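Box 3.1 — From sequence to structure: Cupredoxin domain-containing protein
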Amino acid sequence: MMRFGKAGLLGGAALLIAAIASPASAAETTIEISVKDNKFQPAELKAPADTPIVFKVKNLDGAPVEFESEPLQFETVIKPNMEGVVKVKAQKPGRYEFFDDFHQGNKGTLVVE
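Predicted structure (token representation):
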């Protein structure tokens, strides 16, 4: 027969309540985007508010791209004919611009609703 002290039972109960009250991880929204001929495809993306976002970026061009967004606080280089993944924290509703820093004319928008 196992014996638990009051502290052990209270600690276990607190862990159980914490696990029920806050799930281990919030659901993520995955968005796929590609770069072809120095253009984002699609150039406008949509994501739900208050949900972490995962960008899966395919660079279909023969030159690297620097996928970047100041408001979303990320910057990453994706080599030619490769894929990259960028994780972004949950955002409030609004419009957030992103761009290719190596090709300044290549811009896009994330619409969070």
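Summary of the box: The beta strands are 29-36, 39-41, 44-47, 53-59, 65-69, 74-78, 83-88, 94-100, 103-112.
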